[in-house]
């Protein structure tokens, strides 16, 4: 087995953010950009990075509001701004790639797809692990958040604050997992420790409210799919309580490769070997130097 070193870096942007990211593999190889979800960070890719980095250049940033990335006072937490920050980071890092594949999970989907809309020719392939792009992919678990979207009221905002609490964070990891005891406890514990920083819960509530704007962007995303036809692999935890119906990708990407795994939202925690094998096979067939 090849030993791959993963470096942990931070780079300040002219706009005031300091983006933390993990970097591994030879920059001369094709780049894979790993985009995390809620409520985690690039830490979720700690086991996948060494597997991919043997053949690919792997980058995994922390979004503003997550992990170890910091932002200036007054930063407005929207998915547009998250994507702008990550796009600026990507352009400024050493060995900035002109082309890259994206792994989109949860919040990584609206961030990554905004990068694709801005520069479609940069995207070599898309790996979606429970990264939604269709309104029909939202499960009934979204109902309290959708109620907040409709009203914008303080009452409905407070009604979803429980989504930022420790019991919910752990539930997101273990729900749907075939062996919940196999989920490493440091995953949800670290996520919650960072969530519990002063003011962070309200940052997350702001992003829950802004998520409605991702749905408004879906028609543009679907047009991008139809026009550009990026190779797409969906490796999907079919027992995810939040996102479902990965077959919807085939509406716009007939050649999309869809694999439904017996796993939950954080399928990478329980099905790492299976997902890594799918990714390596997919990239080998669709991404070259």
Any overview of this molecule?
- With 289 residues, this protein is of the alpha/beta class.
- It has one domain: Rossmann fold (3-Layer(aba) Sandwich).
- It is 39% helix and 16% strand.
- An eight-stranded mixed beta sheet has the order 1-2-4-3-5-6-7-8, sandwiched between helices.
- β1 and β2 form a beta hairpin.
- α2 crosses α3.
- The radius of gyration is 18 Å and the shape is globular.
What tags apply to this protein structure?
globular, 289 residues, eight-stranded mixed beta sheet, alpha/beta, Rossmann fold, 11 helices
Summarize the structure.
With 289 residues, the protein is an alpha/beta fold.
Strand order of the largest sheet: 1-2-4-3-5-6-7-8
Number of helices: 11
CATH topology: the name is Rossmann fold
- The CATH superfamily is Alpha/Beta hydrolase fold, catalytic domain
Q: What's the architecture in CATH terms?
A: 3-Layer(aba) Sandwich
% residues in beta strands: 15-25%
CATH class: Alpha Beta
Question: What's the total count of β strands?
Answer: 8
* Shape annotation: globular
Radius of gyration: 18 Å
Largest sheet: 8 strands, mixed
Order of helices and strands: EEEHEHEHEHHHHHHEEHH
Per-chain topology:
Elements lengths: L5 E7 L5 E7 L6 E5 L12 H5 L4 E5 L17 H14 L7 E5 L3 H11 L4 E6 L14 H9 L2 H6 L6 H9 L10 H11 L4 H11 L1 H17 L3 E6 L19 E5 L5 H4 L1 H15 L3
Parallel strand pairs: 3-4, 3-5, 5-6, 6-7, 7-8
Antiparallel strand pairs: 1-2, 2-4
Helix pairs in contact: 2-3, 3-9, 6-7
């Amino acid at each position: 087995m090849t030993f791959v070193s993963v470096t942990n870096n931070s780079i300040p942007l002219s706009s005031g953010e300091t983006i933390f990211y993990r970097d591994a593999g030879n920059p001369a190889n094709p780049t894979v950009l790993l985009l995390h979800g809620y409520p985690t960070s690039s830490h979720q890719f700690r086991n996948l990075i060494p597997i991919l980095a043997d053949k690919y250049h792997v980058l995994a940033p922390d979004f503003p509001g997550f992990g170890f990335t910091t932002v200036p006072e007054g930063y407005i937490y929207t998915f547009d701004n998250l994507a702008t920050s990550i796009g600026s980071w990507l352009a400024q890092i050493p060995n900035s790639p002109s082309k890259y594949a994206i792994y989109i999970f949860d919040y990584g989907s609206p961030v990554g797809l905004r990068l694709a809309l801005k520069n479609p020719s940069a995207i070599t392939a898309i790996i979606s692990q429970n990264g939604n792009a269709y309104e029909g992919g939202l499960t009934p678990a979204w109902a309290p958040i959708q109620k907040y979207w409709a009203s914008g009221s303080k009452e409905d905002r407070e009604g979803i604050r429980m989504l930022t609490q420790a019991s919910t964070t752990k539930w997101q990891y273990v729900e749907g997992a075939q062996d919940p005891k196999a989920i490493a406890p440091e995953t949800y514990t670290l996520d919650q420790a960072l969530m519990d920083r002063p003011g962070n819960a309200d940052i997350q509530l702001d992003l829950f409210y802004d998520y409605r704007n991702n749905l408004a962007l879906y028609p543009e995303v679907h047009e991008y799919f139809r026009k550009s036809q990026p190779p797409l692999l969906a490796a999907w935890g079919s027992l995810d309580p939040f996102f479902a119906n990965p077959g919807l990708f085939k509406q716009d990407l007939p050649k999309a490769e869809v694999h439904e795994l017996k796993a939950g939202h954080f399928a990478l925690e329980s099905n790492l070997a299976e997902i890594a094998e799918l990714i390596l096979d997919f990239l080998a067939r669709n991404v070259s130097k």
